[in-house]
Specification:
This protein is an alpha+beta fold and 187 residues long. It contains four helices and eight strands. It holds the Pfam family PepSY.
């Protein structure tokens, strides 16, 4: 009797384990699809519109970074900027332009100057769209784009797009004005 009870317990455990694994695989596949869908198909607000929302809130500042990412609220833009004394951040709903959160913080004394502001501010003229950056990055890295950052390095404003293909992730840097691929590197 005891041996039979042990066999039934092991069988139930194996069944639960198999059902749990198959449910987890289904969830991971749907996460991949929804991640790609969120950033390419469900955003209704362009990067240019997010920049305008930020600039309306903080008109006398320069933008230093823009990020599009998935959050528990759905897709959001995080826009950061500075002036001579403070740094600012605004989180914007990428579906309806609503400001979710905004903050201000005083800059460190060494960062409080015109040179820092000039060196860190992005060139926002003639930006390629998020969808165009996604297309370029996905072609270059053969996967689905999952995260976008607009940054500046050595005077060049560029999109840094994280692309995922299975378990592999790559970062693709794209000139934000010309669309030229600057670099593809594995994460």
């Amino acid at each position: 009797m005891r041996k039979r009870f042990l066999q039934i317990t092991v069988a139930i455990f194996m069944f639960v384990l198999l059902v749990g694994c198959s449910t987890n695989n289904t969830k991971n596949a749907s996460d991949k699809v929804s991640s790609s869908k969120v950033l390419k198909n469900t955003i209704k607000v362009s990067a240019d519109d997010a920049i305008k929302v930020y600039q309306k809130k903080y008109p006398k500042t320069d933008i230093t970074s823009l990020e599009l990412e998935k959050s528990f609220r759905g897709p959001v833009y995080k826009v950061e900027g500075i002036d001579e004394l403070r740094e600012y951040q605004v989180t914007i709903n990428a579906k309806n332009k609503n400001i979710i959160q905004n903050s201000e913080e005083e800059l460190d004394e060494e960062d409080q100057n015109e040179t820092t502001r000039k060196n860190e501010s992005l060139d926002l003229d003639k930006l390629i769209s998020v969808k165009k950056a996604a297309s370029i990055a996905e072609n270059a890295a053969k996967g689905d784009s999952i995260e976008f950052n607009l940054e500046k390095d050595l005077g060049t404003t560029y999109w840094e797009v994280k692309v995922k293909n299975g378990s592999q992730e790559k970062e693709v840097k794209i000139d934000a004005q010309s669309g030229k691929v600057l670099k593809v590197e594995s994460d």
